[in-house]
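About this split. The held-out portion is used to measure sequence recovery: a designer receives only the structure tokens and must propose an amino acid at every position. Recovery is the fraction of positions where the proposal matches the reference. Here is one held-out target exactly as it appears in the evaluation file.
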């Protein structure tokens, strides 16, 4: 029962985080560029991030708790975990680091620029966020692929 709960929590958290980034990058971004002028687009993104980032914080905590819970309660520790688990762990920390950078640097600057109605500055920060989120989305997809098929490749 515990094993199932840990996996469900882990997978749902990954789906929320990576799925949210994928949706934002592949669908929201192009539609916003097509339909909105820069001031409205920057306000939209600031609002999206303000609502999405608390979920990312929650998913990061849930992913770490469920992942390490699984590793130590089910596998008996990192030494017993397969290479695919170590790959997910390492790439997951890269993803967390990228999110922390976005949250504490360009997102805060974006929010300040939007509040000051400095659209040019806001656009620079949004472009930086977009690039990092694009890379984080690709990493997330890779981690999902490793999680789904990694144990079968060894």
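Reference sequence for scoring:
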């Amino acid at each position: 029962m515990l094993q199932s709960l840990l996996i469900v929590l882990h997978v749902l958290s990954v789906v929320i985080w990576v799925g949210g980034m994928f949706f934002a990058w592949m669908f929201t971004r192009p539609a916003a560029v097509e339909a909105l002028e820069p001031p409205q687009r920057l306000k939209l993104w600031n609002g999206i991030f303000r609502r999405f980032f608390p979920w990312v914080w929650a998913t990061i905590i849930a992913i770490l708790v469920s992942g390490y819970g699984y590793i130590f309660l089910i596998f008996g520790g990192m030494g017993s975990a397969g290479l695919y688990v170590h790959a997910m762990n390492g790439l997951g920390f890269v993803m967390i680091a990228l999110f922390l950078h976005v949250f504490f640097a360009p997102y805060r600057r974006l929010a300040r620029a939007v509040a000051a109605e400095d659209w040019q500055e806001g656009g620079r920060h949004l472009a930086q966020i977009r690039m990092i989120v694009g890379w984080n989305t690709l990493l997330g997809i890779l981690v999902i692929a490793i999680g789904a098929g990694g144990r079968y490749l060894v």
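Annotator remark: The first helix runs from residue 2 to 35.
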